[in-house]
Here is the input.
Amino acid sequence: MLQNEEVAAGLTRLADSICEKCLMSQTCKDVPMCGDVQLLKQAEELLKKA
Here is the structure.
């Protein structure tokens, strides 16, 4: 079974990959985050705290 750190790192890579492909990635600081990316980042934070 993967450790929380490994899972969190994988979620980070997945979120980054989604952002790289997004047409809004250059201006996303001014736009609400994509729901999928936001969910991945929340899961990453929860795993880091566990």
Notes: The first helix runs from residue 4 to 21.
